[in-house]
Amino acid sequence: MGYLTGFGNNFESEALPGALPKGRNSPQKCAYKLYAEQLSGSPFTAPRNLNERTWLYRIRPSVKHSGKFKKIHFPFWKSAPDKKDHNLPLGQYRWDPFSNDKNTNQSFLNGIKTITTTGDVNTHLGMATSIYIFKKPMSYSVFVNADAEMVFVPYLGDIKIFTEMGTIKIKPGEIAVIPRGVSFKVFTDGNISKGYICENYGSKFVLPERGPIGANCLANPRDFKTPIANFEDLEEKHDLIVKWCGSFYITEIGHSPLDVVAWHGNYVPYIYDLRDFSPVGAVSFDHPDPSIFTVLTSHSETPGTANIDLVIFPERWSVAENTFRPPWYHKNIMSEFMGLIYGKYDSRPEGFLPGGISLHNMMLPHGPDYETFEKSSNENLKPVKISNSLAFMFETRFPQQVTKFAAECSELQANYIDCWKDIEKKFDGKK
After folding, report:
1. For residue 265, what is the DSSP state?
2. What are the beta bridge partners of residue 316?
3. Is there a contact between 176 and 170 (Cβ–Cβ < 8 Å)?
């Protein structure tokens, strides 16, 4: 499967030769009797460097993929603001990996369960985090999220996402980003697939500025991949499902809406292998803030304060001298939703498993557990490779509200806070 490479580029791709018009976007008659249509991801008047749009040349225009909608309900998929209809108090929380549903043959949409929400989907502010568990393919149903840009983070099983611009495949260690308003359907490799989802209601994800780091390292633009044109010409009944302002709507159409034969533009889905991330760290003492591991960021109106940051903790060398090497104890203005893709996390190696979740909301203290502190405070420091480990974090400036499902599920660890209970007073007034 081929891809186009680069981040934020203006791409072009055609599944049939000559399907893309030359010298104009909307000719009087398109090749192959296609229809020209523009998908805009920004206001028309946005500055040139922020203006996002893609021209699609499709078998039918999108207005033919629509009809009279009726409401449909996905009971565990929530949007902000979500009514807090549970009694879970304030605190630091952690969840075990979520077990398979009794009906493992559910499709992607039915397999989504929201863990946290924040902001307001109606004002394009904030985010939601969810887990997914599914096996059944979306063979004759297509989904459009008009509310949010979606980030897929698998930890078990490969998935294939057939989008309007083409097909992408990801496996654990990779992520996929689907822009707001792009139609798609999701398949597995025939086995159960599990992972995390982030819905970004705010400004789209971009690469963070690198400042004094310079032109290289972190996530390099060349490592991002965009699909090549691929289309379905199916005259069979399909369900089109749209998420709009936190509600779901369905309409039945007589064909596949994934019928884009050619396209060009910069509003596109993409994938990224997190193992291509080039980490930067201290080479003498201390270690930088975890923001040094930011892969993508969604800006807010406050400079330097993200609507969302996607941060990872990748394989890397730890070499700092006279330094407590795990993440230090801290309270943070950001609210941290953390997941583990594989391996162990060095700050809390026990009780945090692949597929698990931790939530440390804004200004709630957290950090290494008792055992990690004692070990890291007394070990003989030498260069160590942190290997076979990949964790990530969706952090936001907003407090993340726990859903009723997440507050009452059996996977919520009742005694997570006990990991710090053995921390003792060591102060004796002496240096």
Report:
1. E
2. 386
3. yes
Provide the residue type at 56 as one letter. L
Residues 6+ apart with CB under 8 A from 424: none
Sign of the dihedral through C-alpha 405, 75, 101, 146: negative
Q: Provide CB contacts within 8 A for 379, sequence distance 6+.
A: none
* Residues 186 and 292 occupy one common structural domain: no
Average pLDDT of the chain?
Answer: 94
Q: Which of 252, 274, 296 is the last residue of a domain?
A: 274
> Is residue 427 one of the residues assigned to a domain?
no
DSSP state letter for 212: G
Q: Which of 244, 274, 304 is the last residue of a domain?
A: 274
List pLDDT tens digits, range 262-276: 999 999 999 999 999
d(CA 2, CA 226): 9
Q: Which residue has the tokens 């660890």?
A: 413
306-313, strands of its sheet edge to edge: 93-95, 357-360, 335-342, 390-396, 306-313, 294-299
Which tokens hold the place of 279?
């980490």
SS3 at position 206: strand
Measuring CA to CA, how many Å separate 281 from each of 86, 213, 308?
41, 11, 22
Furthest CA-CA distance within the chain: 85
Most confident of the following: 3-12, 100-109, 422-431: 3-12
**Residues carrying an active site annotation:** 287
Question: Which spans in 99-172 are helix H?
Answer: none
Q: Percent of the chain scored above 70 by pLDDT?
A: 98
Tokens of 229: 């044109």
Task: Kindly state whether residues 313 and 259 are assigned to the same domain.
Answer: no
Distance CA 128, CA 247 (A): 14
Q: Which of 297, 427, 398, 356 is nearest to 81 (CA)?
A: 398
Kindly report, residue by residue over 320-351, the tens digit of the pLDDT.
998 888 888 999 999 999 999 999 887 666 78
